[in-house]
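Revision sheet: structure tokens.
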Amino acid sequence: MNNINYYLLLLLIITFSCTNKRTDVKSENTVLIIKDYLSDSDYISPGGDRIHNSYAGTISYIVNGKPYYYKPLKYPDTVFINNTTPYTEVSILNQNVEEYYSLLKQGDTVSLTIDENKAPVLKSHSSEQLTGLYNGHHNLLTLKSHSNFEPLTLLLHSGDYLRKLAIAPPSIFEKYKDDYIPIDTLKNLFHEYTNIYEKYIAELANNKSVPKEYVEYNTYLLNLKQLSYIISNYQYDNIEFDPTPLNNILSDDLLNYASYHLFIDTYLNLFFDKYNSVPSIRVANGEYGDNRLTFDLLAENSMIPPKTKTILLGKTLKQIIDNFSTKEIEYYINKYYELTQDSVTISYFTDKYNLDFAKYD
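Predicted:
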């Protein structure tokens, strides 16, 4: 999956949706001071397994529907987040693998350091309470797996690798044994973590000095983690489930969260195609899903809200352009425009792929 191309497409789609909206909301910078080095190299596990990510930045956030991605150029470095809302979710890429989310208050100055376990730590310059809230759910991770990642991180990023390692010949297992942790152990760790997280949210709700936004945000984030876990079970272990909870969390109101954008990417790649039995097309150097069928199924799905659907359709359209004939591309570009009226994304594809038939004003 080419995340960089997806993020570029996402940027165009969301920017277009916001260009005609005028806001008189006062903006105020939140200042993030990055004091310690954030790795943007491939992660190498203790056993030597390589996890490659093509993220657009080690720091990401969304303002007014527009995504921003940043890689520090020096240390210390400073990011100015021009908020127009009281809070902005920031994603920090931990060891270039794990998304570390935190909800920062508008106008605050926040320092970012890395602790002895290589995990990000945020410190508010204005309030000890905010420091606690910025790091709160991360401080619950007394049950981390190896490499100091959340159990869910390994289930999502290394689930297939760990399952294959469990049945590998002794010579292979010996080579990578430092990576091995049984899938059932990770699942148990995840369930223990969610129980602790639920108690933490209850404590926040009972503390009248805690802004309600942090109760709502942590409730949302835990729900997202639990649904990602369900997707992982479905993808790798073929555990059947009712997709209604997944569909219910899809909401255009969440498009200002970087975590939501990552989730809908996971939703499409690990759930939607499999649930709808989208077949793969084999080619000489591998295989890919029949993105034409994915596009048609997305277009017909009434459970997906309009802006979220536009993002998913745009992502799928890019895959069609990469893998199918000019005739098919023209058909689906026309269909995309009929569904979304999004000429900006089509213009982007027109320029990138020299599609002279795809002209919309």
